[in-house]
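Following up on my earlier message about adenosine monophosphate. Here are the inputs again, as you asked, copied directly from the submission form:
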Amino acid sequence: MRMLLIGAPGSGKGTQSARLAARFKITHISSGDLLRRHISGGTSTGRTAKAYVDRGDLVPDGLVMDMLRKPVVAANASGGYILDGFPRSVEQAKRAYETARELGTSVQIATYLDVPTQELVRRLLARGRGNEDTEDVIAHRLAVFHQHTLPMMDYYSEREDVVVIDGDQPADQVTAALFAALEDWQQRSA
Ligand code: AMP
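Thanks, got it. Here's what our run produced:
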């Protein structure tokens, strides 16, 4: 299975992606986690990315795409992937589509975790992940999400199967809803 999990910062993407990866035996690839690893490891990718991540801005497309190419190709060869945090803009989605088509690794289903803004802010403040989760940066990350990432859903609804899940419930209920929707999709597409 090759899928995307799209959601705002604080929507529960990371937690749910890990559970989906275990359930469907696919590789969890988080662009945010990979970037944080590059930053803490002091690689050249990390040194370029750091200022963007600290501000809550999107890291340049080329950098993210280069970073993801290898893990996506490897995951594709071993059962599939769940991409968490990528793509994050219509531009990235278009570029990813072109690359994936060449590599034969196109996305089959896009899932969207829908959570009201107020709840996102509450969760992000509670989480407090260093520079990324100060009040100003949270506001900026949510603005970036509305401006760049949300419009991508229209792009995917024209192209792939899209499943919208209510993410404003306890994590276990979100997981159950995701499992049910994806099992249903598997049966329909079998
Ligand atoms: P996340 O953990 O997915 O919320 O990502 C943390 C930060 O990493 C974001 O605020 C961005 O600065 C950067 N980032 C993660 N994924 C992407 C992406 N697909 N494109 C650009 N920047 C990204």
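One observation from looking it over: Residues 9, 31-32, 35, 52-53, 56-59, 64, 85-88, 92, 141 surround adenosine monophosphate (CB under 6 Å). Hope that helps, and feel free to reply on this thread.
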